[in-house]
């Protein structure tokens, strides 16, 4: 009978894979592990050969996890983090580091509709790590305002910061099921002209607008006569849930709202901008263990999301 140990790749191979999947870069994984890039590439090729499948999709200048790679990464990142925490717990090394809370800088809508619903799982896995969510009205800047880690939308090119890619930007038109029952179905973008559009306008962060949405569909944006303008995405989502019109929502922020029936997709097409959300920390800083565990947990949560 084959033992569990005999059916698993080596711990070293899994560590190389975890770093490569988290960074989506063999060179950055090599930096994290203090080995050469060729050693990382060789280790990944050996792991893929032993499993008989590709864990990465290799593009010209970037890596992407294959569906099998996403599934393995979600399991490996969570398991390695739990092992590291258990070792620290039983040796007493985690007590002093865990006393200082991790400060997470995010938008209000990201905090309310994506982070908070998942915090119970984090608390169960890492009960000794204190967390604090700091919602701010601009892009959070780790190293400033006491923020340790942020979730930011952009191109990932921020001086003095390290990044871990999460998910691509997908922007959907959403409304309450009751509103769509009264005003739908919205089969064509021109049908949206008859709806009240809820505009989320952010003076401090670059966000897709209704004008960009209509331009992507080859149509002029409607005039301001039937519109509501707000400066907070959480308020825009609440207005849509209250049946006041159609607004733009970002995945995965809107996923739980759609799943529970508070919102619904108003239109069959969505806007892909080519930008991504990222985990952002200070560049070059040696992350204390609780913060490193939290970042790994966030990346695993993103990798576990399916159905996009």
Model description:
- Helix content is 42%, strand content 21%.
- It is of the alpha/beta class and 308 residues long.
- Strands 3, 4, 5, 6, 7, 8, 9, 10 and 11 form a 9-stranded mixed β-sheet that branches. Strands 1-2 form a two-stranded antiparallel sheet.
- Helix 7 crosses helix 11.
- The longest helix is centred in the N-terminal third of the chain and has 25 residues, at 67-91.
- The model has no long low-confidence stretch (mean pLDDT 84).
Largest sheet composition: 9 strands, mixed
Structure classification? alpha/beta
Q: What is the share of helical residues?
A: 40-55%
Average residue-wise pLDDT: 84
Proportion of residues in extended strands:
15-25%
Low-confidence stretches: none
Total helical segments: 13
- Tell me the total number of β-strands: 11
* Quaternary state of the chains: single chain
| Beginning-to-end CA distance, first to last residue | 39 Å
What Rg do the Cα atoms give?
Answer: 21 Å
Shape: globular
Order of helices and strands: HHHHEEHHEHHEEEHEHEHEHEEH
